[in-house]
Amino acid sequence: MMKLISIALILSLSSFLFGQESKIFSFDFGYGVNEYNMSKLNDFYIDSFAGTPENDLLREYVEKGNNFKLGVNYRLIDCLDVGLYGNYQFSSLKSRPWKKYTENSGKVNYSKGEYELRTEAISIGIGSTFYYSELLNFKETSFNRVHLGLELNGGVTFSKVSAIHTVYTFKTYDLSEEYFSKEIFHGQIGLKLEYDFTQTPIFTTLGLRVGYQFLKSGTVRDAAGQEWLINDKYPINLDFSGFYFGVYLKIGK
Q: Which first-to-last residue range defines the signal peptide (predicted)?
């Protein structure tokens, strides 16, 4: 994956140095759904703790999440865009469990609280899109508003997982835990299909993107640097890797 991204960036830089650029800037805003492979979180945390009958906090697994992406692009040549992007992706499982608590008087009561298991990842990086439709001379056909491309994205990601349990009593309180990973590599490879609604003087494009994401952390740690171990022996990592699908709006000139 790193080799593919390096090749794309070298080609982009070479095109710039030889002065073959078209000089087109664009911005894109997108939303998508990502599949995740959170096997350790599901097996060791949910199955061994949150999903057990005595706790009954969750009855689902972390399997997918939402993704929001913002990018700025520069068209070096007719068939190649390069740029910078940032995205935020997350998953959220919620429930309303009952919680037993004891008042100051010693009386035992039960209250329905709120529980959330949330995974998050913020990424920034460099991306490129190679439009092979331009090589097929779509501009000279009735498909001149359609663009097909191969995208390669790579950068750094900051991720964390949070378990937040809010109990509503005579005095509301939170039982919260947060675990973070070190900065990790984030990569994507996929296909794009775009259609231009307007082309001059400003082009407006609606696009679809589908592909595969590589994003896996090491063992997550708390703010004190301690590893998150379930039952003192099962380390937890976050694996956001999986297929993605999304839509985006691109505006440029």
A: 1-19
Tell me the residue type at 250: K
Set out the domains of the chain in order of their start, with CATH numbers: 25-252 (2.40.160)
Q: Are 238 and 216 in contact (CB under 8 A)?
A: yes
Q: Tell me how far apart the alpha carbons of residues 160 and 116 are, in angstroms, rounded to a whole number.
A: 14
Q: Report the amino acid identity of residue 39.
A: S
State which residues of the chain have pLDDT below 50.
2, 4-21
Encode pLDDT of 13-26 as tens digits: 444 434 444 558 99
Name 66's Cβ contacts closer than 8 Å, sequence gap at least 6. Answer: 31, 32, 33, 34, 89, 90, 91
Contact criterion met (CB below 8 Å) for 125 and 85:
yes
Kindly provide the residue ranges of all beta strands, DSSP E only, lying in the chain, ordered along the sequence: 24-35, 64-77, 80-95, 98-102, 108-112, 114-130, 146-167, 173-180, 184-198, 203-214, 216-219, 229-230, 234-235, 237-239, 242-252
